[in-house]
Design goal:
Blueprint (H helix, E strand, L loop, with lengths): L11 H15 L3 E12 L5 E6 L4 E6 L1 H4 L11 E11 L4 E11 L3 H16 L17 E6 L4 H13 L4 E6 L7 H15 L4 E6 L13 H9 L4 E5 L7 H5 L2 E2 L3 H8 L1 H37 L1 H4 L2 H42 L2 H6 L4 E4 L5 E2 L10 E6 L2 E6 L11
Helix pairs in contact: 4-8, 5-6, 9-11
């Protein structure tokens, strides 16, 4: 009868490590819903809590990097959905959920619909980088689809006014949150891209929760962006927010201000080079002066020229005259370059929107929805409007006949 095999004796840490390896392999990506209990946000930025239901409790931890991306404030008793992986805290022999992302339980259905649409459009090839188009280097007109009253349009106007003041901005107002916003956004993209005579388009809004940004996750908007004949830059939310609009657009910018910087990047380079021209001309003149002086000093130190003093003085006189003429020519070129810079700066200042309003121009908006009216045909008789001037706004009513709305 063969001798019995002795059972393997594990050290506690050895067995715990084996269990940890099995759990981390088997449950590397899990989604768990439950109620928050024992919530504790540590000074280190990490969060420690438990997830529980009527029958069980699961310890959980969220590291600072993941916790910083949570868009709401977790609290005791809140129902949440967590995504992460199962691991083991070996000093206590306790398994726990390492949470990578957390959302309120009410967003679960939205997230499922987001993933389904994302998978569908990806399978159709709408996210393929090969389909994306490059942005124009020097766009003359930039279209913007966003709310006319939010901070997004102000940020874009400020950035473009500073970096590319000659660029024309065309705003197509649209609702960026709430029921019906997706339809308005899609219609705005379609009409602005085909009738706005623009070179590139920015579609954007500020940050928010998944529900706040939901209108940018619509299939209608996604297909409108894909069908746009001009490149589209998505600037929705903050850097950590992602929407379907981001995936189908030709380029994603982390913020609306960054989108304005991207479309005006070439303009900023040209302005920087233009401002550098006077310095480059001065450095070139100084380099020529040094070279001529070294050459002259070399001639003066040569044996042949030390003897015929008269020839040396004549040569020196010619060099001085040539240097004077060259200096005058470079000074003239420098003056012309500086004059060009001053003209460009004057043109930049002349395109300042505030200065344009101070010259007597006004922005006319339809009172009922704030839409900007840019043609006389859009001013119907008895139409209440608001006229914004540089020092304030006034209300008025149109009294003469006119054509119907340009977009209706």
């Amino acid at each position: 009868m063969p001798p019995e095999t002795e059972p393997k004796v594990y050290e506690v840490s050895e067995l715990t490590a084996l269990i940890r390896g099995q759990l981390e392999t088997r449950f590397a990506n899990v989604t768990v819903s439950g109620e928050i209990g024992n919530w504790k946000a540590a000074a280190s930025g990490h969060a420690y809590f438990s997830l529980k239901d009527e029958n069980a409790l699961l310890q959980a931890v969220m590291w600072r990097s993941a916790f910083s991306r949570v868009r709401f404030r977790p609290s005791e008793g809140m129902k949440v959905i967590c995504r992460g992986r199962i691991s083991v805290f070996e000093p206590r022999g306790q398994y726990q959920l390492i949470v990578d992302s957390m959302q309120e339980a009410g967003e679960g259905d939205l997230w499922r619909r987001f993933e389904e649409l994302k998978r569908k459009l990806e399978e159709e090839g709408l996210f393929d980088p090969a389909r994306k188009r490059p942005l124009p280097e020097l766009p003359r007109t930039v279209g913007v689809v966003t709310s006319p009253s939010g901070a997004v349009i102000r940020d874009i106007v400020n950035v473009l006014g500073r970096r590319a003041p000659s660029v024309r901005i065309v705003l197509y107002p649209a609702r960026v949150q709430g029921s019906g916003g997706a339809m308005e956004l899609a219609r705005a993209v379609e009409r602005l891209s085909r009738k706005g005579r623009i070179d590139v388009m920015i579609v954007g809004r500020g940050g928010g929760s998944l529900e706040d940004l939901w209108e940018f996750n619509s299939e209608q908007l996604a297909r409108a962006i894909v069908a746009s004949p001009v490149p589209v830059v998505s600037a929705v939310g903050h850097e950590t927010d992602f929407t379907i609009c981001d995936f189908v657009s030709d380029l994603r910018a982390p913020t609306p201000s960054a989108a304005a910087e991207i479309v005006s990047e070439r303009y900023a380079d040209l302005l920087e080079r233009l401002h550098e021209l006077p310095n480059r001309a001065r450095r070139a003149l100084e380099a020529v002066h040094r070279d001529r002086r070294r050459h002259l000093e070399g001639l003066l130190s040569s044996y042949a020229l030390r003897q015929p003093e008269l020839l040396l003085r004549e040569h020196q006189q010619r060099v001085d005259l040539a240097f004077e003429r060259m200096g005058g020519h470079l000074s003239l070129q420098l003056e012309r370059a500086q004059s060009g810079v001053r003209r460009l700066l004057g043109s930049i200042e002349g395109h300042n929107p505030e200065l344009i309003l101070r010259k007597g121009y006004a922005i006319v908006r339809r009172s009922r929805d704030g839409r900007v009216l840019t043609t006389a045909k859009a001013l119907k008789k008895n139409l209440p409007v608001e006229m914004e001037m540089h020092d304030g706004a006034r209300r008025a009513v149109i009294t003469d006949e006119n054509a119907s709305d340009l977009f209706e």
